[in-house]
Amino acid sequence: MTPTRLAERTALVTGGGRGIGRAISLRLAAEGALVAVHYGHDHQAAQDTVKQIEADGGRAFALRAELGVPGDAEAVWDGFDQGLAAVGAPAGVDIVVNNAGVTLPKPLADVTEEDYDRVFAVNTRAPFFILQRALPRLRDGGRIVNISSGAVRIGYPAIAAYTMTKGALDVLTPALALQLGPRGITVNTVAPGFTDTAINPTLADPQIRSALAAHSAFNRLGTPADIADVVAFLAGDDARWITGQWIDATGGVHLGL
Ligand code: NAP
């Protein structure tokens, strides 16, 4: 069957070449969207993602823009506009997924001013200005999904500054949802829990893996596809009545005492 749920839609996925972003790119493309796979450094991963989408019968292109540096948002949209023109697609965007992010695994005492500025520049400043510049391109009925973290709802001293970056982004979601509601555009946050990607190198240790898995009600780590499925739901018409929400996609991490 030809996928039609997101047919005629164009999506931008930041950090769409690896990890959770790759799963989101693959899933949105499988639903029929033309996907702009943004990446910062890993050209090969982005190319592989585009090739995988094309091999599965979908449409995608890669665009590079380093986030966390002056002019980053402008570079993202320049690359997006050029990519659309190169594949002969009409200008504009329907789905924006702010997924790219970096962690900062340091307790408060060890965080330098440079560390702090960097993690905020990539995780908070970049999505803010990406969304600002998305506004004139977003078609009515569009979708915005910001990727946060389940760590925001618990105390987690080891990554306090990182969690602050996500908390700030979370506050933008309902504000933008109210602003864009009259145009039928929804804005939501998806918060993953412990998910099996390269962002957490300690997952290579089997003991740490099982300890983190045990925080979930399902006693396992999340997979990128677990998160991508939630994003794909929010990106489609079935989620038209959900906006301004913080969706916990942690597999029930820390539900009880
Ligand atoms: P990941 O595997 O490390 O992927 C990070 C992605 O962000 C990559 O695609 C990377 O692209 C991009 N990126 C990072 N820094 C960038 C920069 N300066 N400029 C441009 N792109 C940049 O991590 P992940 O687990 O998939 O994380 C995806 C999102 O989920 C992040 O926002 C993260 O905070 C959030 N999250 C993850 C977990 C988890 O346990 N995995 C939990 C909660 C929330 P390049 O390699 O091409 O630069």
From TrEMBL:
Pfam families: adh_short_C2 (PF13561). Residues 9-193 form the Ketoreductase domain. It comes from the Bacteria. Gene3D superfamilies: NAD(P)-binding Rossmann-like Domain (3.40.50.720). SUPFAM superfamilies: NAD(P)-binding Rossmann-fold domains. Keywords: Oxidoreductase. Belongs to the short-chain dehydrogenases/reductases (SDR) family. This is SDR family oxidoreductase. It comes from Kitasatospora aburaviensis.
